[in-house]
Records
---
Amino acid sequence: MFLDTANTEEIKECFRSGAFKGVTTNPTILLKVGVERFEQIQSILETEAQIIYVQILGTTAEELYADYERLKQIKTRKKIGIKVPINTVGLEVVKKIKADNEDTLVLGTAIYSADQGILAALAGCDCVAPYVNRMSSNNIDPFEAIARMRSFFDDRKLNCEILAASFKNTKQILDALRAGAHTCTISADLFRQMANKELAMNAITVFNEDGMKLEEKTK
């Protein structure tokens, strides 16, 4: 799974679990940190995360590609994936990035429909990020869209994975995975909700209390 944050303290905390492969960011997430963009990217690269997705900025193909070239200059042994917002301009930029370096990881983001995700995959994206909760809020069934994308990718053996994003609760995460998402990117808060179930925490407390009683009996 991926962690959807630019907060290095959250990254350090959550990566201790062993459940995460990388980090996804976007301009809004980076803005919350309040640090210059490239400086914060460098701080994230110094954490345990091995893959960091960064969204390129701009409204034209030229602006987006120029930002990609700026990100290319970052010196690191880790993988910096490029997030490209998918529209007609974004599709053009995906093609240009892959022509420049076919090994660059490209994530098509701001996906709100199956047909949009399919176009992103055909253009060369390695992953697509359907926005689950945002789709639901706009009366779009995100799970049907994920299922349709997964069926299309599998039937045609496209090398594109579904990295579901935008979650309000843990049920949406499970439903996205059941619908066919290969993985998800989630917030630190939702990760804690997934791991620290109240019933489990209560049981752990009882086990520890009983364990202490056993220790007392052996003294």
---
Amino acid sequence: MNRPLIFQIGILMIILLIGYFIFSYLNQNNKLIKESISEIENDLRLKNKLLKASQEQNKILGLSYKSSDEKGNIYEINSLSGSIDETDANILFLENVKAKILVFNYGVFFIESDHAKYNKLTLDTHFSDNVNLLYLDHIIDSEDLFLKYIDKEIKISNSVKYKHKENLLEADEVNLDMVTRTSKIYMKDKNKKVKAIIKN
């Protein structure tokens, strides 16, 4: 065998060995990266499970609160489930909510919503998502309803639709005084007008 051929075979062997070592090194790094990603994903899954378990542990099923005062007013609120605010034990976050407010000598207001934030001390409540208020034959649908219970005041906002018999109104906000049974219906933008369909 001549020298140049041996030299060429030697160089070829060295190139193949270098290629093999580079491939092995990259393959090993790739496995380490995949293992690290897998560990991170497992950690995230575990944290999510722990968080869900903690939330489930914090959840209370079948909540019901009833309050009355010396004037004969009664406020009752029920929900399928809820949880206590971690920063304030007097605040409850409720789901699938139904409330009834009896104002003495004036009548009963019924409120339903998907969610509510309820203060056990003041009884102030923020009903949210698919809110429905019913008083006699007056119906108001919206996305937010703020009840100041002591003042007997309700502020309704966000996609407000008022129905009374065949009459319809659409507005930005409605302010309702439950004692005097007076209401203010208006738009936030003074240049816009309340939409109304009045049939009687």
---
Amino acid sequence: MNTKELDAWIDAHFDEEVRFLQQLVRVPTDTPPGNNAPHAERTAELLAGFGLPAEKHPVPVAEVKAHGLESITNLIVRRRYGDRGPTIALNAHGDVVPPGEGWTHDPYGAEIVDGKLYGRAAAVSKSDFATFTFALRALEAVARPQRGVIELHFTYDEEFGGELGPGWLLKHGLTKPDLLIAAGFSYQVVTAHNGCLQLEVTLHGLASHAAYPSTGVDALQAANALLTALYAHNAVLRERRSQVEGITHPYLNVGRIDGGSNTNVVPGKVTLKLDRRMIPEENAAEVEAEVRALIERAVAAHDARVKVDIRRLLLAHALQPQSGNAALVKAIQRHATEVFGQTPPEVGTPLYTDVRLYGAAGAAAVIYGAGPRTVLESNAKRADEHLVLEDLRRATKVIARTLHDLLA
């Protein structure tokens, strides 16, 4: 097969691909609140119009609500070409953080300006619903494989850790891929990523009138001492260097603080939510034990009367570098070099993703798709998130060519 035939099919159907992405962006999937089943229904409807029926796998409501979400239906499009050959999964997530403030374009308008499509999840990662779908369509139209299986996995729990997205599909035996290509967010081929520990820390003091502060136990002052200790710990973490290119060192961040009842009341309760990024070389259990001990020591040293409750919100293990994904990496790099004119590097990322769940299940995985040159350029998770449409076109060609190579 001449790769020009695949490229030509994608060029001829590119306007249709853009319209497909626009329709996906126009259905909100803000998480929280996480009412994502309607988006899955719309996606399945659009896929059926392409002759790609999707299996619908709704997650039981009780499980969804226990995770603080409202509805999840995961989709699998399964295309079997022969008994021999690998099963290749392509995964992208539809859930996304709420748009927030500062937009100059409608976050659900899918407006196109100067070759860029604007909207929440336009880049991460509804773009790769389109990349993967149209790469599959191109392959079947031009060079239908005679071996192997391709599966499209469109899931809806990446923002909350992935356990009810890919994790749920894998746990219930609904898929067992040999190879995985997951939604990308840069020109790079990502083969490892950080882990993440998130904790909720509640400090219990004793509220009292501000006119009589000695009658209370100030939880906010204890929180101040704790914050000082936590951020000072980053000096220690900066000395723990990763050997994975693209990943530097661990980091600890406090992302939210809630507490107090009024300006004239000594705060009796303060809650912190913290995020501890873990490099691939770290042991997650040891990291959690270290952070918990640090919290307890800092609070006890400030005021032993303050009670501390620590609750784990998330423990996402790192994606370790794998030896089995070499064929994936080489194929993507070869075709990206031809399509983009430069070879994308193989790197790790300080982000964490649900790709780790596929890796833990034995799939050789890479992260690559219609990302911008760097993740920051797309404004992902910020106002005016956007996708350069030419990046979508080029990434679709790279994925289609790669699938052909792997199933030839």
